Amino acid sequence: MKSEEKLQKKNASKSEMSSLPVDALDPAVRDSIAKRLLIRNMCSVKVENLPKHYNYSTILELAPEMSSCRILYDPVSRRPKRFAFIEFPSKDIASKCLIRLNNKNFGGKLLNVSLGGELSESVDDYRHNCVKLSNLHWRTSKGEISKHFPNAISIDILTKIKTGFNRKQSATAVVTFNSIEETISAVDEKQGCNVHGRKVSVMFCPKKKNSLLVGLTVYGLKKSSSESDLRALFPQASEIKMFPLGGFAFLRYDVADDCILDKKNALGASLKQRKLKVVFKFASEAPSAANSDSTVVDKQCHSLVCVTNLDRSTTADQISKLFSGAKIVSMPKKGKLHKGCAVLDFGSVLAAKRALSKSHSLNGRMLVLRMASKKLLKPIPSN
């Protein structure tokens, strides 16, 4: 009976904290949380173009003075993403590390290092009774975490792979407290604590993003598989994007019901003697209200065109000469060169449609033009 009463009290306290509106927070508490978010970003660096098979030991070798790090996992390639965030005790140490590591040759790759942890600095985007632990060893248990957080009312270790945890993937955990004060204290005192031989990143837990069903991802394809082969299995798809080297394809749907129906019909399907794995694809939306910048992007999207299949050595001047009436909005980079695509603003719907209706070539390559998506809208750096 006593154990049941304790559980009821814990659940009640958790529900009260989760239902607490952000506006109800004390202004002083909001300011202290915002200050910690800002400081964490200032004391972090982003290391890009890392070698394929790097791990925690690799990051520790690069920056032994770090307080913690965040290594993100790519479920498609089944290895860490090619960038990681390293967190330091102060901004000065972070700046010194940036100078030391930027353009350094490491594992045959030239590192690209920039200041900032890319954490949202909006207080509204976080749950204020929880902290998120990043960079945990995959074997970490709840008992090891509870030694560092004795006041926690619950500990949830998150695993992203249902069929078993991948050893290459760092684990994450969510630790819930009774009060906001305990949460802030945990962020201040436990950042960089050693759990199972690793320096762990401790930060406020982000809210879950609203997800929207947009399509299907099909795995297990051969390189020789074509769009027409997939179209026969998934007739309702409005757009099919093939990734031959990765052995998968992304299918976009205008109607969610068509997406669900196609997945149901393709259950146990095979293509060219290979059994296909079909999973839903969701698009995430930020939990907070869209800011003024996003509304500007929505208004401009109709005149923006994405140009792909560019040679990576193509310059902005060459693109400007080919599309004389357009302005270059973005050229996403990979290392020292761009990724082979650019986003152009033609100023009007008519001009954008006119460009889409024509064929264009540059440096012996046939260019592919389509309407730009919001995620590509990052301004090119000014010279």
UniProtKB/TrEMBL annotation:
InterPro entries: Euk_RNA-bind_prot, Nucleotide-bd_a/b_plait_sf, RBD_domain_sf, RRM_dom. The keyword Plastid does not apply. The lineage of its organism: Eukaryota, Metazoa, Spiralia, Lophotrochozoa, Platyhelminthes. This is RRM domain-containing protein. The keyword Signal does not apply. Residues 43-118, 303-374 form the RRM domain. Signal peptide: none annotated. It comes from the Eukaryota. It holds the Pfam family RRM_1. It comes from Mesocestoides corti (Flatworm). Keywords: RNA-binding. GO terms for molecular function: mRNA binding.
